[in-house]
Structures are given as structure tokens and as C-alpha cells.
Amino acid sequence: MRCPSCGAMETRVIETRTAGEGRIIRRRRECPDCSHRFTTYEKAEEKRTLRVIKKDGSRETFSRDKVLRGISRACEKLPVSLEQIEDLAAKIEDGLRSEGLGEVPVSEIGRRVMEGLREINQVAYVRFASVYREFTDLQSFQQEIARLIGEKEGNRNGNGGKS
Ligand SMILES: [Zn+2]
Question: Would you call 135 exposed, middle or buried from its count of C-beta atoms within 10 A (0-12, 13-18, 19+)?
Fold first, then answer.
């Protein structure tokens, strides 16, 4: 935390308290350079930032909106409610945060979106998978479709395909 008085990069925490039923962390800080004291308030859930490792290796802050947009795009014109889309995005974010991951590869988020969509809508799942897995040829795409259809028929036969 930067000193607001002299701009020094490092300041010392001299006291930490929680407020608002533990949802706010109040920190009393002191600058070792100019002895300026100040107080910061942070939301408890933002104490740990979640970052996404992109394909090119760069990092960006996790954005639930981005996940939401990705899911929405896959669900366009399908009978999927906004609530289902928001629930899935929230589930993914909560899962990543509760696992205490500081950084997560974008491919891992994609995998979780895929898993979630599979339960919600098969067409949305295939749409998303085709982008995420970057099917390089028509054959691998067709294999995936065939696998899906096979699974569906397995369900219809009552063994759920998992016996
Ligand atoms: Zn200072």
C-alpha cells in the first residue's frame, strides 16, 4: 500500500481490525519513510485477488462479466434463462475463490464453463466447446457430437451412461 503523503511504495500495517460483521478490514498503517499514519478499508472478499493467466502468459484480473459474456454468447437464442447463466458464472467464481487459487489459467475457466453448460443445454455446450477446444478439423468436432448423442441415448436407456 502506497503512502498517500510521500508516495513511498511500502507502508507498515500497525493494526488490523474487522468491521461490518467481518466484511470490512480496517488497517492502520504507518509509512517508515515519513511516519505518516493513515487508515485503509478493504472489503474482506477482495483481500485475495483472483487473476487469470491468458494464453500468451499475461495476467489480468478475473472478471465475472467476461465469463458471463462467454456463457451468454454460447446460449444465444436457446431456452436458457438469464438466471441460469448468472448462476453458472457465480458458481464458477465462487468455486475458484473457495479453492483459494490466486491465479488460474484461462483454459481452466473454459473447462468449468463447459462442464456447467453440459448440464444446462447441449447445444450451448457444443457451441462453447467448439470455440474453447478449437476443433481444428471437422472430424474431431463430429466425434464430440457423436459422443454426446451416444451419451444421450445411454441416459434414455436408463443406465445414465455411468454404470
Ligand atoms: Zn510516507
Answer: middle
Same domain, residue pair 56 and 70: yes
Question: Cβ(147)–Cβ(155) under 8 Å?
Answer: no
Q: Could you tell me if 69 and 24 lie in one domain?
A: no
Does this model's pTM top 0.70? My answer is no
Structural domains counted in the chain? 2
pLDDT digit string, tens, across residues 71-82: 999 999 999 999
Residue 35 Cα to ligand 1 midpoint, Å, equals: 6
Domain encompassing residue 17: 12-46
Grid cell 500495517 in the structure block, residue: 13
Burial bucket for residue 22 (CB in 10 Å: 0-12, 13-18, 19+): exposed
**7 within some domain:** no
**Rounded distance from Cα 30 to ligand 1 centre (Å):** 8
